[in-house]
Design a protein that fits this description.
5'-nucleotidase,  domain 2; seven-stranded mixed sheet; six-stranded mixed sheet; 17 helices; 26% helix; 26% strand; metal-binding; 5'-Nucleotdase_CS; 2',3'-cyclic-nucleotide 2'-phosphodiesterase activity; multifunctional enzyme; hydrolase
Length: 615
Amino acid sequence: MVRIGAHEAPHPHRKGTALTSSSGASRRQVLAVAAAAATAPLLAGAPARAAEAKGPKTWDLTVLGTSDTHGNVYNWDYYKDAEYDDSRHNDVGVAKLATLVNQIRAERAGKATLVLDAGDTIQGTPLATYYAKQEPITVTGETHPMANAMNVLRYDAVTLGNHEFNYGLPLLAKWIEQLGFPALAANALNEKTGRPAYLPYVIKKVRLGGADSPTINVGILGLTNPGSAIWDKANVEGRLIFADMIETAAKWVPIMRERGADLVIISAHGGDSGTSSYGPELPIENPVALIAQQVPGIDAILFGHAHAEVVEKFVTNTVTGEQVLTAEPSKWGQRLTRMDFTVQKVRGRWKVLAKGATMLNTNTVVEDPAVLAAVRGQHTRTVDYVNTVVAQSSQELSAAESRYKDTPILDFINHVQTEVVTTALAGTAYAALPVLSIAAPFSRTAVFSQGDVRIRDVAGLYVFDNTLEAVVFTGAEVRAYLEYSAKYFRTLAVGAPVDPATISDPAVPDYNYDVISGLDYDIDISAPVGQRITRLVLPGIDTPVADDAQFVIAVNNYRRSGGGNFPGIVKTQVYNQQQEIRQLLIDWAQAKGVIDPADFFVPNWKLVREGVPVF
């Protein structure tokens, strides 16, 4: 098994004004610098400490963790063409993370500091999409922006997340080849051989202090998400299988210990809830707490996938009684996890005396200029591309109410999907079937302003890199699908106040609420889940949809593959030309020149309570 043993000297703290993609640092950044300087000891965090007793010397080790960076390098919102900001004034990007990492490396000069990432790295922003689709690195040979940024930061290892498989295995392989550190995924197996398709783990020989200090072997095991078998079925089927994360940890942790790992850290792309967004046909999507409970020999788990902020959570291992430290650093580079360990060599073996975790906020620092410089040209090209005008909008179209009202901007997606599938099926055995279309309100902030519509506006509406597929549904399957989708809403009795901000069940994300065009239907939110579709009729004639009626359904590949566990949708496609939906929307807009709701808006669904419209 590969061992990576070179001790890396601490990176000196870089000084000077950080660059941004606008001219100079923003006022918020300048204020953040002052705040950071005033609270430097707090920013750095305090190492976990154990009582110093007579006997062997204690040493400390720091492990820094990131996850779900999702293609964010600059603190930049490509959809708004402005510095990133949100209601909590979070910042994003590897450049911000690098500044915090370099501060801690400087603080700990001469001491052991490792940096890990728990996955979902090369998808999520127009920057990442551009180098997968518009100028793919597999064609140009150019280094991916996330490799450029992460190499400057000098990670020690990254785990593959499920979104690493979005663009196919060749692009993933090219990105891994460009990294200056290992990419791990112990449970992603070659389907033909059953052996790991990627490096399962590394053991790093780390010097704990100066040149004469002792060394400790840190084992790092990477676990990716089994859901990729569903979500990226087109890319991995027949090539990769994804083993259970718990069973994989149970297999490899003892091997790592046998091969000399004194400290074992898992970098896992899965949440800790023990639940899955899909059915029982695959291993658990979010098993981190179960791994900590069931697999002995683990000191800590850095995890991601759920985009949650878990500062420090201890889980008791039921076999050994030991406490396993777990932490998740939010998303997009908004947070940096810091894990600190105090260790001591007792009778020739390293023992962890204390451990703990803190969370650092990247909005307290400026961007690292070396990271910005490494990606500046690629960032600029992406900004220029997304600002390309593709059409004129006849009026402002907003997605703000698309979750609970039928809106033109969501009908725009459904109209294009319907048109593409209808055209493709002409002259086939399915040509006579009505084509319905499914879309979800991915964004609450997307808007086409009256006038120029740019690529970034379309990308802001359709934020995922999904492709278009189609299957055949019966009327009964359409009803079951809509009933499942309608669980998105809270149950609100007749007369109860309705607040759009709280109308949905927080356990169901917006992207798992689908609306269907081509049929008219009502959703009664005063009725129990499973009994809410009170009216489902053919458009314009109020004839109820028969259970045995047949329809073609245009749907994205994520949903058709089982994402969200919607009923009936996982079946053989009658259309699948691997066309990206976002690009289809751009192409339609460019061809028409004008986006006018009169061309596609057909109000066909509404929320009701006992037949009375809610809005």
